[in-house]
Design goal:
Flavocytochrome B2, Chain A, domain 1, 4-stranded mixed sheet, electron transport, transmembrane helix, iron ion binding, FADS-1_CS, heme binding
Length: 457
Amino acid sequence: MAVSSPSPDLKSSPLKEPHISHQPVTLQNWYKKINWLNTTLVVFIPLYGLYLTRSTALIRPTLIWSILYYFMTAFGITGGYHRLWSHRCFSAHLPLRIFLAFTGAGAIQGSVRWWSANHRAHHRWTDTMKDPYSVMRGLMFSHIGWMVLNNDPKVKGRTDVSDLDSDPVVVFQHKHYGKCLLFTAWVFPMLVAGLGWGDWWGGLVYAGIIRACFVQQATFCVNSLAHWIGEQPFDDRRSPRDHVLTALVTMGEGYHNFHHEFPSDYRNAIIWYQYDPTKWLIWLFSKIPFFPQAYNLKTFRSNEIEKGRLQQQQKAIDRKRVGLDWGVPLSQLPVIDWDDFRAQANANGAALVAVAGVIHDVSAFVAEHPGGKTLIKSAIGKDATALFNGGVYEHSNAAHNLLSTMRVGILRGGQEVEVWKSDASRLGAKDSKGHMVVGAGEQITRIGAPVSAAVAA
């Protein structure tokens, strides 16, 4: 009986080779791991530009133009690519959108569409492998490694950029990005310097190549340093941080903890003295008389911003509380009868004193008592509530706090403390983890002065 050959759909297909980023480095494949186009744009050309500075004089007009164009192209990224298109923090009329797309292309960081897709993925998948420049993969990777290495496109998290496809400026720039880059990054700054004061070569080297290098490295700091150094005043579950240093080199983008919590806010800095020129420029464009170029500037509700700040402060308080001695919780103390308290007051070197229904062992403090040994010894085996609360001296907040660390028991029937012991909600405020935090003036041992009784006439 003849055996038929297996049908084509049952034939086993060869295993697909894993992406080069998942393969070990060898002498045969190392060059495949490098994105040579990006490496040329962000490494080789800048290095060549630095080499050319050895033989190219830098004259004052070219220096001024290089600095001016640096800020223009940096704003194209921070105000345009980032806050306008990636996060839609504000809206812009056509002239401003053209300007931002033009100057942004001069920063040599990809098209608006490509940049925004990566940045939206960064926000959606922060600190995961789906984050295209996750700091979890190392500081250098988040700074420049993600650009110069060939990364598996299937790993990056997906995001929606369909809204950008309705903007003709974005569509045109993306379609013709190579030409836009060539003109805005190198030809245009050279033309300005050449036609303006005859420094063609200096315009290309300094206002073109070197300027773009500085803009690139400054912007890359948002992906690296802004996730590495600084404070986290609004949330600490993820890596973004606020730091004035990164703000200075990124035109205000360094207040990154705020930005990741409130990405739709056109501001990164919300305090008047914080450095955020991108915010100020957007605001100024919205105030142009007769035809403002920026409008619909979005800000997050200040109530929610302060909630986030307060919650972080509460976390910090909670962490500090754990390291402090608040005394043994009342619920863990034994209940002692008055007669037993009296019998144990001086036994085995103890020195027991009752204050507000709580029994304290003050034996280790007798010699250090600021009021002298005699006064504190006179209270041993007695109810010293009145003495401690103004009868002899109105003790300080610190004294009440110190006394709480000496408590060893609960006096049965002592000023309803047994009731407090069974109802922890009456013992004072709690931190976010449910632990009691005793506020100043709210210590159990603090008893207020009695209300004066009315006297009949």
